[in-house]
Amino acid sequence: MEALPAWVGDYVQAVATETETPVDLPGRIALAALSTAAGGRAEVEVRGRWHEPVNIFTVVALPPGSRRSAVFSAIIRPLLDVERDLANDAKVAIAAAELERRIATERAEKAARTAIGADPLNAGQAIGLATDAAMAAESADHRQAAQPVPARKPHPTDRSCVGRIGRLTILPQ
Questions:
Q1: Which of 49, 86, 108, 163 makes an SS bond possible with 148, Cβ 3.0 to 4.6 Å?
Q2: Angle, vertex CA 166, rays to CA 163 and CA 167, nearest 5
Q3: In a domain, 151, yes or no
């Protein structure tokens, strides 16, 4: 417990007291939750140019009736709440990016139609405008807002397995 930051240690102790479990169980799960939250965002320099991501591998194996589910729920709930909030916030950015892409595409198509029908004296300028609009539309295609990668989503074979980009987090239901 002394190795944990005070706020994590206090939360671990509160969960252990509430669930009547040894502090080892919520402590280990808290480390796994922190590792999941930091996954891919932090790394340590071992020495020289050798860098490694900050992550841990932990397994909690207890017999039935050990209150694992209650502890997992209490520890993981804040992580899932933050992910839900991030996903809701991302919806606005994603909708705005999609609208920007649609507008740019329509402008590019309109400019192309104008260039096709332009008289030979104005064709060069019309083609330039159409090219600029097409490039703006292509740029808008590449500026998509990202949907947060959830720490927990159903896996085809095991509903407690979670796929991440290059990572795997295993959490109970």
A1: 86
A2: 55
A3: no
